[in-house]
Every structure is written in structure tokens, then in C-alpha cells.
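Morning, I've got a small favour to ask if you have a moment. I owe you a coffee for this, so here goes:

…
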Amino acid sequence: MKKWLYKSLVVSVAFVTFGLITPNHEIWANFDEERATKSILDRPSDNQISAAYQLDEIIVDQQQIATVDTFVEAAKEQSYIKFGTRIGPVIEDEFETNIFPKIEEAIAMTVDRLGHESLSNLSITEKPSGEYSEKIFHIVDNDSKKDVIRFHVRTENRPFDGYYYNFHYHTFEDNYQTHYNLGDIYWSKNTPPKWLS
């Protein structure tokens, strides 16, 4: 409590009670204890300070350890978010065995071309597109804010065959013009559900 408020309160209580309650009463002692406790609690302890330093070191270490594996794990997570609960279980096995190893390889090749020192400057986009849009995820250069590589899946209706998912990627090196094919997964002759469903 502020000093002037404390003094005003003491004077008011003394005035209202005609001096029957003195400032040395237990109430006033509690106010003093609260102030002392609050000032002690506001100050960080040595344990809190050392824990904060350790946490900072862990965060810095984790940022320095950005590896291809980090991007591969994020890529898999974003892929399954895009597939949703209706498409994911149906294509999961074929995706894991035929498509995802090629995604890993494409990420590794891109990082090799850019140099491993660039890893700390790259990030992976979140929120794959829904409906029937192609975007699964992009890997972005944080400085230029430009995509380095774009991973997409296109739903194709092939006459007399049915629906297929065509997985492919584009790179910044040719201004995203070329489709680098990763493979196809057959859905069925029925129209597939929308992404993220």
C-alpha cells in the first residue's frame, strides 16, 4: 500500500473509532507483513535466476541444432494435418513407403545446395491449405521471406481410372515452374473428400 494511503487509513480509523483502535493493533501489523512478503515475492530468487539462465541456454542450443531431421518431422506433421482424418488413414501406408522418403530426399538435397549453415535461417510453413488446394507446406528463407521449396499434392481425375493424388514439389531455382514428381497415390473412382476434413 502506498505510504500516504497507509497514513490516511490510520488517521481515519483513529478518528472514526475515537482512538479505541490504535495503530499498533493486529490489523496494522498484517498490512506491514503483506508489504514485506510482497516485496520478497517480487524479487526473483537465486534459484529462479539460475533456472532462467539454464532455460535460455536450452533455447539457444535448440535453435542452433536445426537439422534436416527437424524439417522432416515438421514436414510429416504438416502432411498429416493436410490429409485430415478422412484421407490420412486411407493413404497413410502408401504415403509412408513411396512418397515420404522422396520428400525427405528433396529436403536434404535442397539443404545441401543451400549449405547447412542456412538451416538456422529456414522455417517451414504451417496451416496447409484445405478444400482442393494443392499446398502441403513450404520451406521459407526467413530473411527474404521467399519460398525455397514448395511441396504440393494435386487431386487428378483421370478418365476411366478414377482419382489420384499427385505429389510434387517446386523450387525457387526455376521460379517454381517445374513439377518435380514425387509419385501418385490412387484414391478411387469416387470423388475424394476435401483436404483437412
Summary: The longest strand covers residues 146-158. The mean pLDDT is 79. The chain has two domains: 3-61, 67-188.
